[in-house]
């Protein structure tokens, strides 16, 4: 098969790395890719959100499968455009991608499906949102309704903090049009986990779960980011809890989407809170998590490409996946200043020494390779240092040994990834 992966971050490097190992593969492209992806795929200088150009390229090259990495091209209709051109696309239609593109839509669907989650309300008026916050009290969660690159959620510990979030999102429009409305939710208490399920419109096949670290600082302090690290499997998420979440949340929502005439095909990423009453839905994403994807592919023992094709072709009912019993972890190295302003262009050295640590795989996120061969940082989250081991502690030690082997003074990472389990 000829495959085109869309995106240029750490998630896409992990997907390309796994797909490149498939015996089904004959050629692999990635648009736009990055310095690390170039080692396993041919990078194409097309932006991930340039849907028309992506489809023209796929048609011209005879691509058999397009794999969408980030959410933005899906919300823009990449799967719809591929379908119109007769090309398989792993990912939901724009209508089904609203499960991530609109927090309010997710809550409406989940409520209709009977999936347990937080009490919520949507507001288009900032004063009304503030009045609701004052009536409810804190802690409380304020979310930009639209896509905000993983940064549109504020878990406010005080009423003043929640009101400030409303002002930033709705009035200052720090997330642009995504903040035209907000969803304000009850603050659920417990451990947060990420559950992934392959879906073909009717059948949902659970993948492994992971636990992400959203906040920039150690001990889960500071502002939310796109993710500073992850590990799999999370010990708090037992097989019984996974089965409960599939039965009460994922499968009912899949059925509700089909009932609405917008069947969901792709990977459904359920952000869950493990409360005293059981798993509760925080939010859905319609693609693999970043950096959770990096931790997942290291444990997958089945052919990822075959699984993606089965999801596209409606064949998951008779499909199974094998997983390694090993533990995996990924530590994100980011540019200093992230998630705020950060400099670009700093040189990253000794990546080869990091990759030589046993059990380690270095995934690139925001990198570019110059004409002189030097790798430079071009994004906020720049590298994902991933590792496996017989225990989580062994995997963590390997990952941090690799981090310490890298020469990049302008970068930083959290030193406590996996702390809840360890």
Structure commentary:
With 422 residues, the chain is an alpha+beta fold. The chain has 4 domains: 2-93, 3-Layer(aba) Sandwich (Rossmann fold); 119-186, Dna Ligase, domain 1, CATH 3.30.1490.20; 191-318, ATP-grasp fold, B domain (D-amino Acid Aminotransferase, Chain A, domain 1), CATH 3.30.470.20; 327-412, Phosphoribosylglycinamide synthetase, C-terminal domain (Glycinamide Ribonucleotide Synthetase, Chain A, domain 4, Alpha-Beta Complex), CATH 3.90.600.10. The chain is 30% helix and 29% strand. The protein contains 13 helices and 23 strands. Strands 10, 11, 14, 15, 16, 17, 19, 22 and 23 form a 9-stranded antiparallel sheet that branches. Strands 3-2-1-4-5 form a 5-stranded parallel sheet, with helices on both faces. A hairpin with a 3-residue loop joins strand 12 and strand 13 (221-224). The chain is globular, with a radius of gyration of 20 Å. The mean pLDDT is 95.
- How is the CATH topology of the largest domain named? D-amino Acid Aminotransferase, Chain A, domain 1
- Helix and strand content put the structural class at alpha+beta
Distance between the termini: 42 Å
Summarize the main sheet: 9 strands, antiparallel
DSSP, total strands: 23
Strand content: 25-35%
Overall structural domain count: 4
As a whole number of angstroms, the C-alpha radius of gyration is 20 Å
Question: What is the 3D shape?
Answer: globular
What's the number of helices?
13
**Mean pLDDT across residues:** 95
CATH domain class name of the largest domain: Alpha Beta
- Named at the architecture level, the CATH assignment of the largest domain is 2-Layer Sandwich
Tell me the name of the CATH homologous superfamily of the largest domain.
Answer: ATP-grasp fold, B domain
Unreliable parts: none
- Could you estimate the helical fraction of the residues in percent? 25-40%
